[in-house]
């Protein structure tokens, strides 16, 4: 397309204006964005916001005169990343303006700040030392718990009778010789190992972003959404591992009479707690599904199932 969304006079696609050429999600290095009216993929028509203030004003005036945003535009997304060297934090900013046919402008924004470079400064070597220690410990814990679980399945198979009910066989293969505390140990190992995977992926994508930044002297847009998601995944897995490890302290402190009573109560009420939890989850899903179906097109807080659950 040429300026003003007019068709090319020649068949040579190299004559197309860059702002009027469709680009894929991989070319733009962007992901999907969810708004009030729907989700928008990473592909589309893009304008690079680079240059001096006077050049930016000239560019905006030209796009306005050429009607780059017209009656067929449904969403305008502005994405940029910032870095504060004083506190060593990156911020990923997404600004969304949805333009339905009714003519109303619906705005939304997301700002996420995260520390991607953790080995800088005087304490960098100490941080890296403890990170490597955590990685080693997580890998050892994961394979220890996994081997214990596999060995338990082996013992179940060796002691299993061939005349048993198939459902009972499947139950014993999964849960035989496996207490809730063993299950918690396995969950801790899995979360720790998942956090290690997220850690290495974050380092990989961060290094790629830094290489891209140095190659272009900081004059091109670098999307840090993937790095941000990996950092959040690392934090979530680490938080889960710490939470379940703290719960295991109840078992360790069973020598105390009061703690022992609490642990015995939890063991006795485990079935009831699980049943209540399952019922609560189904009740919440049904309730939120009705809210989404009823208010999804009327209130922004219920625009999607995830937003409904968060509300």
Describe it for me?
- This protein has a three-stranded antiparallel β-sheet with strand order 3-4-5, with helices on one face.
- It is about 55% helix and about 10% strand.
- It is mainly alpha-helical.
- The longest helix is centred in the middle third of the chain and has 36 residues.
- It has three domains: about 100 residues, no CATH class; about 130 residues, no CATH class; about 45 residues.
- It is found in: Membrane.
- It is a multi-pass membrane protein.
Annotation keywords:
membrane, mainly alpha, 311 residues, 9 helices, 3 domains, two-stranded antiparallel ribbon, 55% helix, single chain, extended, 5 strands
Structural class comes to mainly alpha
Report the β-strand fraction as a percent range.
5-15%
The side-by-side strand order for the widest beta sheet comes to: 3-4-5
Indicate the overall shape.
extended
State the share of residues found in helices, binned by percent.
40-55%
Distance between the termini: 43 Å
The number of distinct structural domains comes to 3
Mean pLDDT: 80
- Major β-sheet, in short? 3 strands, antiparallel
Q: Tell how many strands the DSSP assignment holds.
A: 5
User: H/E series, N to C?
Assistant: HEEHEEEHHHHHHH
Q: Multimeric state of these chains?
A: single chain
Count of helical stretches:
9
Radius of gyration: 27 Å
User: What low-confidence regions span 5 or more consecutive residues with pLDDT below 50?
Assistant: none
Protein name: PKD_channel domain-containing protein
Organism: Caenorhabditis japonica
Domain Polycystin: 5-117
GO biological process, one term: detection of mechanical stimulus
């Amino acid at each position: 397309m040429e300026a003003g969304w007019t068709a090319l006079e020649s068949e040579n696609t190299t004559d197309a204006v860059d702002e009027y050429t469709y680009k894929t999600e991989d070319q733009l290095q962007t992901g999907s964005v969810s708004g009030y009216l729907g989700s928008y993929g990473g592909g589309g028509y893009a304008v690079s916001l680079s240059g001096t203030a006077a050049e930016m004003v000239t560019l905006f005036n030209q796009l306005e005169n050429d009607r780059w945003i017209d009656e067929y535009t449904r969403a305008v997304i502005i994405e940029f990343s910032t870095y504060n060297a004083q506190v060593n934090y990156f911020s990923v900013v997404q600004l969304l303006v949805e333009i339905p046919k009714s003519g109303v402008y619906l705005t939304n924004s997301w700002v996420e700040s995260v520390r991607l470079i953790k080995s800088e400064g005087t304490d960098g070597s100490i941080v890296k030392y403890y990170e490597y220690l955590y990685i080693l410990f997580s890998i050892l814990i994961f394979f220890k718990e996994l081997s214990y679980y596999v060995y338990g399945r082996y013992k179940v198979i060796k002691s299993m009778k061939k005349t048993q009910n198939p459902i009972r066989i499947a139950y014993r293969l999964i849960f035989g010789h496996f207490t809730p505390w063993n299950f918690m140990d396995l969950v801790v190992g899995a979360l720790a190992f998942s956090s290690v995977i997220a850690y290495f992926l974050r380092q990989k994508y961060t290094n790629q972003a830094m290489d891209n930044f140095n190659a272009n002297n900081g004059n091109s847009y670098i999307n840090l959404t993937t790095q941000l998601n990996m950092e959040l995944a690392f934090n979530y897995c680490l938080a889960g591992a710490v939470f379940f490890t703290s719960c295991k302290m109840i078992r360790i402190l069973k020598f105390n009479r009061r703690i022992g009573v609490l642990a015995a109560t939890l063991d006795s009420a485990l079935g009831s707690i699980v049943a209540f939890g399952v019922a609560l989850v189904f009740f919440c899903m049904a309730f939120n599904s009705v809210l989404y179906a009823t208010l999804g097109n009327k209130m922004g807080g219920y625009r999607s199932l995830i937003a409904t659950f968060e509300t």
